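Holo model, tryptophan. Inputs:
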Amino acid sequence: MSGVDPSQRVLSGMRPTGRLHLGHYHGVLKNWVRLQHEYECFFFVADWHALTTHYQDTRGIEQATQDMVIDWLASGINPGSATLFVQSQVVAHAELHLLLSMMTPLGWLERVPSYKDQQEKLTDKDLTTYGFLGYPLLQSADILLYRAGQVPVGADQVAHIEITREIARRFNHIYGREPDFEELAESACDKMGKKAAKLYRSLRKGYLESGDQEGLERAQALVKEQQNITLADRERLIGYLEGTGKVILPEPQALLTEAAKMPGLDGQKMSKSYGNTIGLREEADSVVTKLKRMPTDPARVRLSDPGTPEKCPVWQFHEVYSEQSVQDWARAGCTSAGIGCLECKQPVIDAVIAEQEQIIARAQPYEENPDMVRSILLEGAEKAEDDARQTLTEVRQAMGLSYR
Ligand code: TRP
Ligand code: SF4
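Output:
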């Protein structure tokens, strides 16, 4: 079993909503593209999550998945760097969800803010279902299944990462205590060799007796460096440092995605529900029309009326798309009434169109050959399955369900 370093693993999921817009691109996908070079990344389509709210109408899910994944690929997500898959194609998510459900207090789920919020907001749906209540736990299973330490999410999802940490802690507390834990940890320590064992014991003693935090971190690093011990022993040694049991499911952290950089056409956050989006691969004509019609500072009734960029959604687009020199030109022209709004919009229009041309070109081979996408997702699911299997084997063992 190869060692997994949770701090180097990133996992994130997106519901299959079909084609994405520029808000997704600037807010989420560009971040994923960057992360895929720095971490071991798993990105998946959360199709079971879609069922928690859209169980009445499931027929669009496959097409929405296909369209969304093409947008991922066209944005620069590289299946050679990141593992891309569909949640329902890795059934291990369901097994871990079930096992965790046995030890998850109802109150924890009822307290998640999105539970009441969504029930109140989505009044056209009956969300008094078992699946909807369990949705944050399904998300916990998604994360813990891969022992992902880093989870890029927006602010609305932070509560779900928090409950995941609580679940992991509870799981480790209940099932991480093997009856002979001390003995196993001591013998794992010996396996590191004389010198490392001695150092480990003295650092552990320093931490347990006088709270030497730096010593704890050194000892953790020492354990992680060990090449010749099993993953199980490594986890025992990490757990033993703090006097607890074995860490079977490591606690993840939220990698908070910056607040939406991309405004919508009306200056609010770009979102389908506000009807203010520009599609990632929208036709150029339609993009130009939308941008030309976009509202500007209402103070600029006539060309001779000066404006205030801060009161104009076009300015926010300049902040995303324009270089400093163009921004300076727009600001000066706006406040002095030296340029008209259409003139001011032109560099933004050009930049959006140029960005989209690239994305559309990268999407084309996948559009022409949908089997390419299917095979990327199939390969991803196989890879994900391998990693998931390792965690589940340990989880089953810890729970006394390995039948060997
Ligand atoms: N719940 C997330 C959303 O609605 C999607 C999601 C599902 C997810 N599982 C996840 C995100 C695991 C991060 C990690 O946006
Ligand atoms: Fe907005 Fe530019 Fe018009 Fe000023 S000149 S109001 S920044 S579009």
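The chain has a mean pLDDT of 94. The chain is about 60% helix and 5% strand.
Archived with the compound record.
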